[in-house]
Amino acid sequence: MQIRGPLELPARREDIELTTADDLTLVGELALPLHVDPVATLVALHPLPTAGGNMDSHILRKTAARFPAIAELAVLRFNTRGTSSPRGTSQGRFDGGAAEQFDVAAAMDAVHERSLPRPWLIGWSFGTELALKYGRDHDVEGVILLSPPLHRATEAEVAAWAGESRRIIALIPEFDDYLRPDEARRRFASVPHLTQIDVEGGKHLWVGETQTRRVLTEIVAAVNPDALPLPTEWPA
Question: From CA 120, how far away is CA 140, in angstroms rounded?
Answer without folding.
Answer: 5
